[in-house]
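Let's study my pick:
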Amino acid sequence: MTQKRILILAAVMLAGAVAGRLAVRGGINLLIGGTLSGGNFL
């Protein structure tokens, strides 16, 4: 594998991890009924 391909894979994995954490946090916020600032989404 070339270094460029490794970098691309690392970037994709990092983006996936960040997106996954944001999705989990968003779901928890929806269940609680608010955002981090205490307001509502809708």
